[in-house]
Every structure is written in C-alpha cells, then in structure tokens.
Amino acid sequence: MDTTQALAKLKALVNTSLYYNKDVYDRERLGEMKEILFDISQKLTSYSEAELEAFFNEDLGYVTPKVDIRAVVFEDDRLLLVKEKEEGQWSLPGGWADVGYSPAEIAQKEVREESGLEVIPLQLFKLVDKAKHDYPKSLNYVYKLFFYCEAKTFELQPGLETSEARFFSREEIETLQNISVDRNTREDLLEAFEYHHHPTAGAKFDLVQ
Questions:
Q1: What InterPro entries does the record point to (predicted)?
Q2: What are the backbone dihedrals phi and psi of residue 61, each rounded to the nearest 5 degrees, phi first?
Q3: Do residues 91 and 126 share a domain?
Q4: Which residues in 85-141 belong to E strands, given as ranges?
Q5: DSSP-assigned letter for residue 147
C-alpha cells in the first residue's frame, strides 16, 4: 500500500467512525485526527488544498469505493474512443455511476451523451480495483467496470464533454499517444480487442492472492 492509498484508507476509517460514533468526546478526538490527517496529506501529496477539502468532506457516511463505468463499443474491428474536451485525451465512453441507474444503464447513457450512439450492453467483461493496476494514483478508492456493448446506430456526434468521437483500429491503439490513462490504460483497450475476438462467459476480475 503506497502513501496515497494509506491516506485514503485512514480518511475512510475516520469519516465512517464520525458517522456512527455518538460519544461527544470520541467525536472530538476523531475530529482532531481528521485535521491532523488533512495536514499530513498536504505535506505528503501534490493535491491542492481545495482538492483535499473536497475529498475529506465528500463521504460523511459509511465510506465505500466509487464506481467508474466504461463502455466498449466496436464497429467491425474498430474500437470507439471519445476525446475529452477538458484534457484533450482519448478514452472509452464512461463516467461515475449515478444514483437511480443500473451499471449497464450508465454505460448506455454515457455512450449516448459522449458519442451520440445508441448501444445495448451485452456483457460485463472486466471489473477491477483501480489501485491494483497501472493507473495514476488517486485519493478516491475506485472500482472500474467495463461493459461490452452492441452498437445500434453508427452516426457519431460528440457531446457536451467531448470534442471528438471516432473508431480506432488495434494498430492505431498500439501507437496512440494521448490516452487518458486515469480512465483507461492502453492495456484496457487492447484487452477489449481480445474480448471482441474471443468473448468469454464471465468477467475478468482481480484474483485473491
């Protein structure tokens, strides 16, 4: 466990304890622990004070991992990617899970909003713990879900958060430079091609050591 993951876990423990503990003296001590943890986070990470404020105050109940959902959509043997306006990098369509939607509905909605395509999610083909793979370090603890989808339309139309949407061949993916590695790594994209060619019955997940 690296420093960022350790700080995130300590924050989750403190916030969860604050939510359930009603003893006034325990809550005072937990509040002091949270302030100390905030100060340590400022010294040991590169996050801004505003980013840390948002992080420490976003989960005030029982703290659980956030869920990032990505959609894998093919046209023949080419994979759909969208370019984020904010960063100018390419990623699979997707985003955070929203209350009121199932994971598959989120995948469908994100594809529509970011590329203009209508799809049907067919299979959850990958579910991973972000901290256990080669993604950038994050204060949020994240589970990533990848849905294999069937496209029903193919007229691409970027959305409010995307500047471009297009299909890429495997050869193009192998040399693509500006991949949004926080959303998906090159390995994620290449595994999507493997699944497209050789679909399996179950989803890939992190095995227990």
A1: NUDIX_hydrolase-like_dom_sf, NUDIX_hydrolase_dom, UDP-X_N
A2: -110, -145
A3: yes
A4: 90-91, 94-96, 119-129
A5: E
Phi first, then psi, for residue 69 (nearest 5°) are: -115, 130
What is the predicted pLDDT for the residue at 20?
Answer: 83
**pLDDT score of 147:** 98
Calpha distance 105→117 (Å, rounded):
14
Q: For the chain, which ranges sit under pLDDT 70?
A: 59-60
Name the residue among 151, 171, 158 with its Cα closest to residue 91: 158
12-28 exposure pattern, b = at least 16 Cβ within 10 A, e = fewer: bebbbbbeeeeeeeeee
The answer to the question of residue 177 being in a domain is yes
**Residues listed for the chain:** 209
> Which has the closest alpha carbon to 53: 11, 19, 90, 94?
11
Burial classification of residue 100, based on how many CB atoms lie within 10 Å of its CB (0-12 exposed, 13-18 middle, 19 or more buried) = exposed
Tell me the residue range of the domain where 121 lies: 64-203
Flag whether 8 is in a domain. yes
Q: Is residue 209 part of a domain?
A: no
List, for residues 50-66, the tens digit of each pLDDT value: 888 888 887 667 778 99
Give the per-residue pLDDT at 60.
Answer: 67
Q: How far is it, in rounded angstroms, from Cα 70 to Cα 148?
A: 9
What does R_g of the chain's alpha carbons equal in angstroms?
A: 19
Domains held by the chain: number = 2
Chain centroid to Cα 128, Å, comes to: 10
190 in any annotated domain: yes
**CB-based contact 49:57 (threshold 8 Å):** no
